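Consider the following input, taken from an annotated entry for General stress protein (Chryseobacterium aquaticum).
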Amino acid sequence: MSFFDKIFGGKQEENQAKSFWNYIKDEEDLRIAIENSYAYRIAIFKHSTSCFISKTVLRNLEKEIEESDEKGAFYFLDLLAHRNLSNKIAEDFDIRHESPQLIVIENGKAINNASHQSITLSQITS
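Applying the prediction step yields:
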């Protein structure tokens, strides 16, 4: 791994997907995620794969999740690949789009959201 890959994250790192993520790739995935929010709290992480800040926030959040006992449902949206879904989420929940962004949903309603360095596991658990 090169020096720049260590700092900015390389292709190898992107292929190491965490097992706790549920990926939102279409409207059906989003519908299922929202439906699940009626049974338990869910969190959607909107990630820009080309943004250094988003990659850093993602790594920090993933580390927090791995080190916790939290057993929530974590959803991941690549907003560059699925911008239409990102826009739909912003519109449906009346939340201004940001990236990176974490939106916590319970009973079909957004109860919390954060962006950039404000994203922490505590947004989900509190």
